[in-house]
Design a protein that fits this description.
The chain has helices at about 40-60, 100-120, 125-130, and strands at about 10-15, 20-25, 30, 70-80, 85-95. The chain is of the alpha+beta class and about 140 residues long. A hairpin with a 5-residue loop joins strand 4 (about 70-80) and strand 5 (about 85-95).
Length: about 140
């Protein structure tokens, strides 16, 4: 881990195109290249964008328990002129329904603002992607 790291995960190869991701709290995820049911790195990227927004929106509307809270994340995988691939047109679609009582109606009215604040201010993942944060890839040792 870099001495500047505030957050980190470790990734270890477990087989051909199979890896295990571990966080500092002991959580484990398995990833692959789509050859089995494990998530691919691109699916994790989409899950991170949607999950970050979902956690934030829930925190901003926590005064009422939703009847439905679902998030769908879609994107297009495209090829650039240099032959590399990237994700474009990422969209995060919320389906959230609260009860029809006073607090449920209040949270329903709060949803547009919660979505906007989540996207523009609080979702670290989305803000990082949109900012175009540089990534350094390097090797340690010989």
């Amino acid at each position: 881990m870099s001495e500047n790291a505030d957050r980190s995960v470790g990734i270890r190869r477990t087989g051909v195109q199979e890896f295990e991701i571990r966080n500092e709290r002991g959580g484990v995820l398995r990833i692959g290249e789509g050859q089995n049911m494990d998530f691919t790195p691109v699916e994790l990227l989409l899950a991170a964008v949607g999950g970050c927004n979902a956690i934030t929106v829930e925190a901003l509307t926590k005064r009422a328990e939703p009847d439905v809270f679902e998030v769908q994340v879609n994107a297009l995988k495209t090829k650039s002129e240099d032959g590399g691939t990237q994700m474009e047109d990422i969209e995060v679609i919320f389906t959230v329904r609260f009860g029809e009582d006073d607090i449920g109606e209040k949270m329903t009215k709060r949803m547009p603002g919660a979505l906007e604040r989540s996207h523009s201010t609080y979702c670290t993942v989305g803000r990082t992607i949109e900012a175009g944060t540089p990534i350094q890839v390097r090797q340690t040792g010989p």
